[in-house]
Design brief:
By secondary structure, this protein is of the alpha/beta class. It contains 9 helices and 7 strands. The termini are far apart.
């Protein structure tokens, strides 16, 4: 029985990754660069999109987004308010987006009017790691308010991402979070990953982060 479970799991991942590659090719054919945003609920994924959209506009780049949530459209409404095309992808009971949901969402977006696509995953630090979606980089957003042991508790998330963001740096003293410890933990699990410290309320650190995203 155990072997059957393992084989089924592998089949699910293989099918997902094959579809993710198809998504990547489809986006590339339309000249769209896609980036995954991962992190817990409240870490700042939506706020990051809100900050990046006007910076991209200054560079002459048009953004679009897929808002992934188990239920509801709170993040989607915030993203639409920035003026960019977006699609709300509800997962129902699933705690992550998968390549099929993203394929469906892409079909509802005006790809020829989008240069940069943000795929905001469901707020979860575990489930999304195994499911590639077709993006060229994966950005993980954590916040000081999650505690400075958050990285140590979720090593796979950091091994599988390409850029790290430590948000809500202004609140670190109030919650007793050691930002240096958080950054050192990220380095331990993914030594080459660039890490940016941001305050998305003020926009501090976002310009440098965008340069790394687009690099």
């Amino acid at each position: 029985m155990h072997h059957i479970d393992v084989r089924l799991e592998k089949d699910v991942y293989d099918a997902n990754n094959s579809l993710a590659n198809h998504n990547a090719q489809h986006l590339k054919a339309h000249g769209v660069r896609a980036f995954d945003l991962l992190g817990a609920i409240g870490s700042g994924k939506t706020a990051l999109i809100e900050r990046l959209v006007p910076l991209l506009e200054k560079k002459g780049l048009k953004a679009g987004a897929i808002a992934g949530d188990v239920y509801g459209d709170d993040d989607f409404k915030r993203i639409v308010a920035t003026g960019i095309p977006a699609y709300n992808a509800n997962t129902g009971k699933e705690c992550h987006l998968d390549a099929h949901l993203v394929e469906h969402a892409i079909d509802h977006l005006p790809l020829d009017k989008i240069d940069i696509l943000f795929i905001e995953n469901v707020g979860n630090m575990v489930c999304p790691t195994d499911f590639k979606l077709g993006a060229e980089k994966r950005i993980v957003v954590i916040s000081s308010t999650e505690g400075d042991d958050v990285v140590n508790k979720h090593p796979m998330m950091f091994r599988d991402c390409t850029i790290g963001v430590i948000n809500k740096v202004d609140l670190a003293p109030f919650v007793g979070a050691n930002l240096d410890r958080m950054q050192a933990d990220i380095r331990r699990y993914n030594p080459g990953m660039p890490v940016f410290r941001t305050n998305l309320k003020t926009g501090d650190g976002v310009a440098a982060l965008l340069e790394s995203i687009l690099a």
